[in-house]
Structures are given as structure tokens and as C-alpha cells.
Design a protein that fits this description.
The structure is a homodimer. By secondary structure, chain A is of the alpha+beta class. Chain A has 17 helices and 19 strands. In chain A, the strands form four sheets. An eight-stranded mixed beta sheet of chain A has the order 2-6-7-14-13-12-8-11. A five-stranded mixed beta sheet of chain A has the order 16-15-17-18-19. In chain A, strand 9 and strand 10 form a beta hairpin. The longest helix of chain A has 20 residues. The two termini of chain A are about 60 Å apart. At the A-B interface, strand 1, helix 1, strand 2, strand 3 and helix 3 of A face strand 1, helix 1, strand 2, strand 3 and helix 3 of B. Strand 1 of chain A pairs antiparallel with strand 2 of chain B.
Chain lengths: ~500, ~500
């Protein structure tokens, strides 16, 4: 039976690479972000809808940019019945399955939001997690234009709700039709060249990381990275690659200038013109939203790495720097992104269902907000601890009485004497300790220690008044225990907010 | 590239067996349960700690009762680096890994709670989900007795916090040492018979489902179920099986009577006596908790199916019935369970770390509370809808203005005329629709439709006053739009709470 372990070869007590445990403070921070984002989504008319973590592998497909692994970046497995399953790698592919499954009864537009973990079987790397949280909003059944403008505006509203000011982020915006138009004009149009065009998109998506030379290599024959790994290129000629790079670098000072430049570059292909028109519509509509059109910047280098985008694409970038691990200022880059995926539902057969959405990287954003000092989870203090002094039934009654007054409390159920229990109280950040030893029981009293005041006195940060008026240790009648603890907690909480 | 799909063979748009999509109302219900349970855990001095969904397969082991599948009930897979991974099937095995990983720096007792999905690769069955939520509390580093009593009391407090009254549930309690003692006395002691004893535990665990005859077969040669599947038995002789069944059926009217009977049955084995003493301690301590000792009932048939339990085991059972799908009253059975698992951390090498915990089946409990009419998620209404009447920028501005007053609102971004949009508003349960057509724009007004009043009038459930005083459709100056919508929503919300 596999539950038995050979004591000579015990299993290793360690997490898989790219996984992590989260303590209460980190969970509380994530939870507060998820709730804040959800409120904004809900305010914009999106309603919650959750899909499971596991889908049939073919229903998810593999649309991730990292296709240098055989797995396509997706965790796949076979269940006991032999069915091929996969863990969701994003929230979009499962939504497409959901919509295709109910195609004839959907209320359109379908506007949903969701939050939860996704999993990616990626290569190792510091700070690269293989389980991370996304918080998505999507609109299905709305053509390009208004719904995409609304996505950008919603994203801006989300970031403002998280206390980022308008000068701390920008929404970078483009449309895949532009690059598609350039590719068409360069002789790379037609359905038979779809894979080559996707390779071009993915090369361009790496601009920030690899620079112009790296992307030029990826557009042509391929690129060998410093570790020696070779990534095959898109197979473009030198003039073709140069034209792509000219397009990518055509972002101007303002969106109007960029639009004019781009109109020339995309030439007269229908696809390119459609992209230009969509972007004009989006920019015009953004003006009516609180964020205004200035929150968005037209940037032809934005393509996003996911395979399924078909039109407008956008990402939210934090514009401030924070000190990196080496002390040098560093940028966080993109914390959210999205775009239009008109063909994703059609994968399952039937008609196109136009769709657009945005995905927010919750953990990344939490790290950015924490590093920038914009938000974090205040470390909550621990429960009140009733020490174990030989009469557990009495101690449990004392803890229960405190709880009935709404005070988090526990009786010590571990092993060890007073010294060890006080050390536990300290490490659990217990604000108060209740002692009901033999003497106290005989006299009908309890001893109550105010550990936070005690710690301030020890650190000599208590005020003279505090030191004079409140002793860090009191003996009170047992009947006064709960009221005394309540008073101390209220005073300490006042002290916290006054600091 | 796998993202391309052969249009001749599109993927099937369906979920894997045992998975489901959750809409907003079901999510809200689950969320409210998880929060309520978390508050009670926190009040009892447990702090949040989350482990990831994926662990190294060997770190999890396989402790599930359903070992009739090759997978042992666990979803396992290999990642791109060839590492053997698994999805957590409970919250306990990952916690043991966490504790073993930090063995030398743990603050003991470690008291944590957590909530989230777990996954099991189980056989098909109606209403059997392979992804479901658990909400667990655990204490590591506390010996048998007080910590187990506290677990039972915490479980009772949780159920009361969910509005179950004390006569709607009971905590069934036993100790695996009892059955171990009986097995020892029956000649089935010793480490070399550990697997056989586990087979006995699992046979007994099926008592409610299979009845005495089924368990007798499983204790001896094995059992063929109606489908023809054969489950091998524990290989006991007839007298041995009879003695086990006598033990299992020894539950009396009250715990004191049961204890006396059991003391005779377990004989003079040390193991059995230890079980008796632990149960006496737990029952005595429970008296000091708000639930009292009467909330728990000693029941020797309780063993729990998981392999890792080593001492006290308990489960919460709902005692009321609800109408089943066939109209007949049915019981929900166990909605939570737990026990002591002193050897689970030792799997990783080193010393024993005594531990106990409880696991609450959130989805099962949600279904039970819903069926019993005790709690459910009130269907929230949809957002205010601004109809698309030809000037999207104006419509988006109107929606943004409503949102800035805290009103969930959206401009219609789909396709279709007035009729289709009103149908959408109806199906989204929008309370109010705002119309700003060409005429209204020319006159500086908007039309505001109160759909809920309109629906009451249509259903003839509006009062005469409502019908007289409030028209279901108003034309107001554009500047009065937000105030008017606010007034209608406030009135309708008053109406809701008055109903």
C-alpha cells in the first residue's frame, strides 16, 4: 500500500519547483486585492462565473507562448479512466469551452469575472511561479470597438481602485490586425502562413526582454541564447524583418502621431486598415470613461504572447521603479493584459463568437504594490493565550468565555512549561496571556499579562504615562477576566492607530 | 502547433466527468460558508496557511480509502522536467510536508486553517465531484486529549455558526486504538499486520453504506457488488469477524454506557486501554466547551477511511432529513470529519509529531444547508443597463456616471436592437434600464425604466399605491439620471426587505 513508507528511504519534504506556501499575511493581501478587483469588475456589470481547475486537454488546447517545452507549458495527465486532462493555464480557454458548451442558450453579451489560480509547466527561474492567481473579466458576444475600450477603461479603474495614481501606470494598446496587415503587405498573408505569423508575433513579444537585435534574429534564422539553447526563427528575409522592426518601433509621442505613422506602414491592406479603424474607435470611446484617452498609449510593439488573440491587444504597465534585490531601480513591467479572441469559441465548431477580455496577474501586482509601499497586509496579532497550568477544563472554559465575547483565544494544548508557553505566545504575537494557576484558582483570580505593553517597556518605547498607568501584569478576579482583556485589547488597538 | 484545430474534428466542448461550472449565486453561497467557518477557526486561535495545489507525488503519498483504482484516487502527472507531481487530495498531507520541511523552526503547537479545492480521481457517480472544497483546521505538536476535544468543540461551534441548531447535528466520536486493541486481542497485532488492520478499518468504514453483511464479507474473503466488481477482503476468520462486528455494534444510549461496554470488548490490551482513556479525557473536557459533552456521541463504528489516522477520530453528522430527488426523505450523513494523525509527519523521517485536525466538506455542507432551507445565496440583481441607441460615447459616459455613484452599470456592447436589448436586461435581471435615444439627446433627457416595478405590474403583484405613485417608465432631465436611478434602487431594495 503506497501509504506505507520505507523508513530507510523517506520521501523528501520539499515543494515542487515554482510552488510556494503562503502565510496568513500574504493570503490576506492577495484576498484584499482580489476583492477590490472583483468590486470594480462587478461595478462594470461583470458577474462571477467559476470554471474548475481541470479540463479535458483538447478543450484547453495549447495557446501559451512558451512552446519550447514538449508540454506546451500545460500540465497534462491521464485519469483513472484513461481520459486526457489538463490543468487550466489561464481563465480564457475554459471560458471558451463554457460558452461553446452552452452556445444556443447563452445570454449575450456574456460578461463574467473570475479569480483563482492557474498553472503553467514552465522552465525554472527565480521568482517564476508555476501556480499563480489571475483575476479576469471578459465580454463574449460583442464586436471589436466599444467592448475593448471598456476593457481598457475597466483595467484603468481597477488599478486606480488599488491606489495606483494615474501617473503610476499606463495602458499600452495595439491591434494584431496592424502587424497582420504589415505581414500581408510583406507577402506573408494567407491561412497557410498562419504559423509563421504567430512566430513573428512571439518574436515581437520578446522585444523588451531581448532588444531589437534579439528580435531580428528570431524574425529570421533563429537565436542562440547565452546558455546555448537555440530558438528557431520565423524564417523572414532581411528586408521583411527590417519592415517588421520599423513597424514595431513606430510608436510616437502621442497616439494621434502614432496612428498617422502606422497608417503609412500598414499600407492599403484591408486587415491593416481594419486595425487602424478599431484603434481610432477605442481611443475615441476611451475619452468618455473616467480614465480618459490619455491613460492609453498606442504602442505597436504590444502583441501579447498568447496564440488566440485576433484584434485589439493591451497591457497595463507600471511606470514607476522600485529597488531591485541588487539595490538598483527596476521596473515591474506588465501586471495585466488582454485582448480580443474572436476565434477561440469557434475552435469547438460553429460560428465565430466575438470576445474580448483582460487578465490581471494578482501575485505580480501584489508584489509590485508591496515593493512600492502602496499596499500590504498589516500583520494581524495572534489570539489571546490561556496558559496550561494543570486544569485544562478550566483553561478551555476561560478560552471559550473570551471567544463568546468575540475575542480570538486558545488554551495552550502543546507540551512544555511556563517558559516555553511564554515563548510560544511571543512567537504567535499573542497580545495578552491569561494565567490561572493553582494559587489563582484558590483565590478566584487570574493573572493577565499585556505582552504588547510589556514588549514596549522592554524596548523602552512605552510612554511614561503608559508605564505609570498600566501595569503590564494585573491580577484580577476571575469574573473580571473578559472585561479586563477587552479593555487591554481596545487600548492597544487605539495605540496602534495613533502610531 | 497544437493551438490550431482541424476544423473537421473540433474538440468537444464539455467538462471532464465530476467537474462543474459554478455561477455567481453558488459561488457567493460557498464564499459565505468559507468565511463563516474561517471566522470560527480564527476565533479559536487558528491562523491561515495555504499550500499549493501541486505537490511532489511522493510527498503526498496515497492515504485515500478508494484504493480500488491504480491511481490510488490521486491525480498524478509528470512535469516537463520529468518530476512526478500530484494534485492534493486533501489538506492534511500537504500540511505534513510543510511541517516536515520546517521541522526545526516550527512554532509548536502549529495551529492553522485553510480553505480551498482538493481533487480526487474517483470512479464516476451521480453527484460525486472530483473537485471539491475543504475547509480544515489542524493542531500540530499537541498530544492526544485536549487538542482533540478542542477539534470536536470547534467543529460544533462551526456548525452552530452556520445556523444549525444543536439538535440538527451530532459529533460521532471514537478512537482507532479501540479497534486496534480488539484486533490485537484477536491475534492481529504487530507491525507486520498493519495492512490487514487497515483493510479492517476500511471495511468497518463502509458499514453505513453496505450494512453488517457487506462488512462481514469484506472482513473475511471479500465482497462482490451488484455490478460484479469484486473487492478483496481483510482475510479474517469467522470468529474474528464476529468479534469486530460485535465491537462495531457496541454503541449504547449514552457515552458512559458505551464506554463500559467497550472496556470489556477491547480486553486488557494497552492499545485498547489507551483508546478508552483518551476518549474519557475528551468527553470530560468537552463539558467545558459551549457545545457540552452531549454534542458528542461515542460510536465505535466511526473509524474514518483515510489511512493516516492513529487515535481519536470523529465526524459531524446532520441528523435531519431532506426530501431526496425521489421525494423520499434522505439523510446527508457526514459533512465533516477528522482525527489524529501522529505519524504523518514522521513519514519524512525523524521524530513523531503528534497532530490532529478536522476537515469540513464545504460543497456537501452547502448542498445540505440549501436543501434544508437553512442558508442559500439570495440571487443578486444585475447591473443597470444603458441601452445602445447610436451614441456609444454618450452611453459609456452615462454608465460611468452611474458607477461613480457606486451603482453597478454597463452600456450594452453587444449586437441587436431595442427588443433584443430589453430581453438581455430581463435575463440579466437588470433592475433599471436607461434610454438615451436621438429624441432624448435632442431634448436633454433620458428615459428610465423600472423593470422590477414593471414586472410586478405585469404579474399584477404591484400594490395599488405602487401603481399610482410610481410609473414604471419616467422621462427625466439627463442631469437627474443618477439621482433618479438611485431613488428607484433604494425603493426597490426597501420593497425587497419588506417582503
Amino acid at each position: 500500500m503506497p501509504s506505507r513508507t520505507d523508513p530507510e528511504f523517506p520521501p523528501l519534504a520539499s515543494l515542487p519547483r515554482g510552488m510556494r506556501d503562503l502565510d496568513g499575511a500574504a493570503m490576506a493581501h492577495r484576498q484584499s486585492l482580489v476583492e477590490a478587483v472583483g468590486r470594480v469588475y462587478q461595478l462594470h456589470g461583470f458577474t462571477p462565473l467559476e470554471t474548475p481547475a481541470i479540463e479535458r486537454a483538447e478543450a484547453l488546447g495549447a495557446h501559451l507562448p512558451d512552446d519550447d517545452r514538449e508540454t506546451g507549458g500545460v500540465f497534462t495527465f491521464t485519469d483513472g479512466d484513461g481520459d486526457a486532462l489538463a490543468l487550466r493555464y489561464d481563465m480564457t480557454a475554459p471560458l471558451a469551452r463554457y460558452a461553446a458548451e452552452r452556445r444556443n442558450t447563452l445570454v449575450l453579451p456574456l460578461r463574467r469575472y473570475t479569480a483563482g489560480p492557474v498553472w503553467r509547466d514552465e522552465k525554472a527561474g527565480p521568482g517564476r511561479f508555476r501556480e499563480f492567481w489571475q483575476c479576469d473579466a471578459d465580454t463574449l458576444g460583442a464586436p471589436a470597438g466599444a467592448a475593448d475600450a471598456e476593457m481598457c477603461a475597466t483595467l484603468a479603474a481597477v488599478l486606480e481602485a488599488l491606489n495606483l495614481s494615474r501617473d503610476q501606470f499606463e495602458i499600452r494598446l495595439s491591434d494584431r490586425c496592424l502587424l497582420d496587415g504589415v505581414l500581408e503587405a510583406t507577402g506573408l498573408g494567407g491561412p497557410e502562413r498562419a504559423d509563421q505569423r504567430l512566430a513573428v508575433f512571439r518574436a515581437v513579444d520578446k522585444l523588451e526582454r531581448l532588444g531589437t537585435d534579439g528580435v531580428r534574429d528570431l524574425l529570421q534564422e533563429g537565436r542562440r541564447d547565452p546558455s546555448g539553447d537555440f530558438t528557431p526563427g520565423a524564417g523572414l528575409s532581411e528586408p521583411q524583418a527590417a519592415r517588421i522592426l520599423a513597424f514595431v518601433g513606430a510608436g510616437g509621442a502621442d497616439s494621434a502621431t502614432t496612428l498617422r505613422t502606422l497608417r503609412d506602414i500598414v499600407g492599403d491592406t484591408q486587415t491593416g486598415q481594419r486595425g487602424i479603424e478599431t484603434l481610432e474607435t477605442i481611443l475615441a470611446l476611451l475619452d468618455g470613461f473616467p480614465c480618459g484617452a490619455a491613460a492609453a498609449r498606442l504602442d505597436p510593439s504590444v502583441v501579447r504572447g498568447l496564440a488566440y488573440y485576433t484584434g485589439p491587444v493591451f497591457e497595463a504597465v507600471l511606470t514607476f521603479t522600485v529597488p531591485g534585490p541588487d539595490g538598483k531601480p527596476r521596473q515591474f513591467g506588465s501586471v495585466a493584459g488582454g485582448g480580443r479572441y474572436d476565434d477561440l469559441v469557434r475552435r469547438f465548431g460553429g460560428e465565430t463568437l466575438p470576445a474580448t477580455g483582460v487578465s490581471l496577474g494578482v501575485d505580480r501586482l501584489a508584489a509590485a504594490l508591496e515593493a512600492a509601499g502602496i499596499s500590504s497586509s498589516a500583520e494581524a496579532h495572534g489570539p489571546v493565550l490561556v496558559l496550561a497550568m494543570g486544569d485544562m477544563a478550566a483553561h478551555q472554559r476561560a478560552a471559550a468565555e473570551l471567544r463568546s465575547a468575540g475575542i480570538a483565544a486558545e488554551a495552550f494544548v502543546g507540551t512544555g512549561g511556563m517558559r516555553r508557553q511564554m515563548r510560544y505566545a511571543d512567537r504567535r504575537t499573542c497580545p495578552v496571556v491569561v494565567i490561572e494557576g493553582e494559587n489563582e484558582r484558590a483565590e478566584g483570580t487570574v493573572v493577565i499579562k499585556n505582552l504588547r505593553l510589556g514588549s514596549r517597556i522592554a524596548r523602552q518605547t512605552a510612554t511614561h504615562e503608559e508605564w505609570k498607568e498600566h501595569r503590564a501584569q494585573l491580577e484580577v478576579p476571575r469574573a473580571a477576566m473578559t472585561a479586563t482583556v477587552q479593555r487591554i485589547l481596545a487600548e492597544e488597538s487605539d495605540g496602534d492607530s495613533a502610531q
